[in-house]
Amino acid sequence: MNDSSREVAPKTQGAVLKWQAPFYDAECALVGLRKKFRRETLRHAWLSPGEQVLDVGCGTGVLTQLAAEEVGPSGAVVGIDPSPPMITLARKKASRAGSQAQFELGVVEGLSFEDRRFDVVLSSLMLHHLPVGLKREGLSEIYRVLKPGGRLLAVDFDRPGHPLWWLLLWPQLFMPAVAAHVRGEIPDYLSAAGFRQVQPVGRWFNLLTFWEAQK
């Protein structure tokens, strides 16, 4: 098992969660992002046995491992994250679980994979960590590594669907990285990256949207 602390961490202008790694899964559970949420994400991804899958911003690898179960031994799933502590923890968890999921240090704006490599790319609560310019670069890179006809399943903050969320989130309109989400602009970013048939396929707590986009 590789120790990512000995690897060179990629540079990025996006947010990198490091010290949060040991507590990340517990924090997700506290805000309602338990395994049920991950299963809902995969339900919208429609993974099939044998598919090649990339999980960008994989964190501790919960979704990545579940995706590996979906594609089976004939498929392959790789999770990337710019945080060495997250990747180290993801590898340890996968090793304990006997999962075939693989994990690499990496940044979405500079993917280390060849063109047209993956059938599916997953992005779960990653895009809001990227500045505006980096969102564009990252989505263009995702488009590049997808096979023709491949698909992106992204879930992230969107225009709130309930007035109470607006009371909590209106200050985010002054934070450019998140403001695009609150204003409901993510489909525009997906279309600008070249994706077609961009459509919302689900909601979570009237705050998060699942988007499907095809190459």
CATH superfamily: Vaccinia Virus protein VP39
Whole-Å distance between the termini?
34 Å
Order of helices and strands: HHEHEHEEHEHHHEE
Tell me the β content. 15-25%
CATH level-3 fold name: Rossmann fold
Kindly report the spatial arrangement of strands forming the biggest sheet.
3-2-1-4-5-7-6
The secondary structure category is: alpha/beta
Mean of residue pLDDT?
90
GO biological process, one term: methylation
InterPro entries: Methyltransf_25, Methyltransf_Superfamily, SAM-dependent_MTases_sf
Pfam families: Methyltransf_25
Protein name: Methyltransferase type 11
What tags apply to this protein structure?
alpha/beta, seven-stranded mixed β-sheet, 8 helices, 215 residues, 36% helix, 7 strands, Rossmann fold, globular
